[in-house]
Design brief:
It is built from 8 helices and 8 strands. By secondary structure, it is of the alpha/beta class.
Length: 326
């Protein structure tokens, strides 16, 4: 994935006061129920790529470490064009988590024009209207169940090659998506992706988040598919919130992807060597939640130690090395 794919707020935030009159800063959403209180811990995906690989390769010397240190840790499942009927796919996954009494982490990753400037994870819906339909069905698949949803990693950092018209189009797609989740999935906490500390400065990111409907979301996500240390991401998130407060009169909780940040970043974002898994999914830890959003061992694209692979492909040797940090 793209450079996205390049990271302690106040306890619980009161309803924000909005000081602008832009479409993205209208009335604050009604507070949703607390999905953490409705569940008992995070859901472990039994069909994640590391779990599937370990089950299929029990005699491999790497299988036990990958199974015990990665596959058994709660992490997100990503949904996109590969998911087939999206309402059915999301309904099945959220339903399995609900049956287990656990909280699922889902990623919506099907934005029209996705990764337009990076290319490693290009694709997405064929048109803005197709994306609107897709995300509406995604929200229907969640329904009234508790869930954590990360919305469109890459989207707000990937502006460098886009025209102003394309940027506004993307912002409107995100506003609509957040509106759909707000109305159709009231027990889900949705986090609009806000890049990472090494990509876009906090001031610019605050403006982009606000213009894309952040007021309709629970908060924003940081460091998705990247490697920045949790303290670096938390500092960045606090800086974003400071700007939001100064310019727009509100702040938001944020979550940090810790799946691959155990050794921090070496400045590379695409399959760098020497990375390590980080703190397992949990509440707190310098953010509202620390979450495994990117699956350790899944490639960022044809680059680095993943040379010859495609984005999302599971690479057992990369996963194994991440367990031990070399």
């Amino acid at each position: 994935m793209r450079k996205l794919l390049r990271g302690a707020v106040a306890a619980l935030f009161a309803l924000p006061l909005f000081l602008t009159s832009s479409p993205a800063a209208q009335a604050a959403p009604a507070p949703a129920a607390d999905p953490l209180a409705m569940t008992d811990g995070f859901y472990v995906d039994p069909d994640s790529s590391p779990a599937a690989w370990a089950a299929a390769n029990p005699g491999d010397g790497r299988a036990a470490a990958i199974r015990d240190s990665i596959a058994r840790t709660p992490m997100a499942r990503w949904f996109g064009s590969w998911s087939g009927d999206i309402r059915s796919a999301v309904n099945s996954y959220a339903g399995a988590a609900q049956s287990a009494g656990k909280l699922p982490i889902l990623v919506a990753y099907n934005m029209y024009g996705r990764d337009a400037c990076g290319g490693h994870s290009g694709g997405g819906a064929p048109s803005p209207s197709a994306y609107a339909s897709w995300v509406s069905e995604f929200a229907r698949g969640v329904g009234n169940r508790p869930a954590v949803i990360v919305l469109e990693p890459d989207a707000l950092g990937d502006y460098s090659c886009m025209s102003q018209g394309q940027i506004v189009e993307r912002q409107n797609m995100l506003i609509n998506a957040l509106s759909q989740f707000r109305s159709t999935a009231p027990n889900a906490w949705v986090y609009l992706d806000g890049g990472n500390p090494g990509w876009i400065d906090a001031s610019t990111m605050a403006d982009r988040l606000n213009s894309s409907g952040l007021n309709l979301a629970r908060g924003f996500s940081l460091n998705v598919s990247n490697f920045y240390r949790t303290d670096e991401s938390s500092s960045y998130g606090n800086s974003v919130n400071q700007v939001l407060g100064q310019r727009y009169g509100y702040s938001k909780p944020f979550v940090v992807d810790t799946s691959r940040n155990g050794n921090g970043s070496n400045g590379e974002w695409c399959n760098p060597a020497g990375r390590k898994i980080g703190t397992p999914s949990q509440q707190g830890g310098g953010a509202e939640m620390l979450l495994w959003i990117k699956t350790p061992g899944e490639s960022d694209g044809d680059c680095g130690v993943g040379s010859g692979s495609t984005a999302g492909q599971f690479l057992p040797e990369v996963a194994y090395r991440m367990v031990y940090g070399y």
